Amino acid sequence: MRCKEWSFAPALAITGAVLVLTSCGKKEQNAQETLLPAVTAIDTLPAVPLDTATTVEPEIKPQIVSSPDGKYTVQVSSWQTKRKAEKEAQRFRAEGYEAYVQTAFLEDRRETWYRVRIGRFERSEDAALMVNQIRDLLQSGYWIDRVKGN
Q1: Is 21 helix (H, G, I), strand (E, B) or coil?
Q2: Domain range holding 14?
Q3: Residue 52, in any domain of the structure
């Protein structure tokens, strides 16, 4: 072996392979000397008594009351086919929201659209709170609208 070459003696430890580098003219180290002590997950975790362990409290969402007389609603999408609108409304219902489809004829376009809406609220602020709850479910924008006839 020439002095400019290096040899590697692999040694395994729990944390991965450890390479032992030896050079020409030095004795190769015994692989047993290079092994790292075994470390287990139990050794690395602090001991916490079970009665003092912290628990994660579930996030408490503000109670938003929808009422049949509400003046405001949250529109989450609008579709040209009733089938797509019903599918979208069902997605929100499956998550526990009061979703419904409202049919709207647009005079200027001479088209019927199907609007997916959630809840009816007394105040626009309550509708905005609902938007914050459903934000992760929204696939596009939203619209807070006055319910027609109120």
Answers
A1: strand
A2: 1-30
A3: no
- DSSP state, 52? G
Q: What is the pLDDT of residues 68-117, one digit of tens each?
A: 778 999 999 999 999 999 999 999 999 999 999 999 999 999 999 999 99
Q: Is residue 11 within 8 Å of residue 31, measured between CB atoms?
A: yes
- Based on the structure, what is the number of domains in the chain? 2
Q: What is the pTM of this model?
A: 0.56
Residues, the chain, total?
150
Distance CA 56, CA 59 (A): 9
Secondary structure (H, E, C), 69-102:
CCCEEEEEEEECCHHHHHHHHHHHHHCCCCEEEE
| Token pair of 109 as six digits | 């376009």
Residue 53 CA: distances (Å) to CA of 7, 58, 124, 138: 50, 16, 42, 36
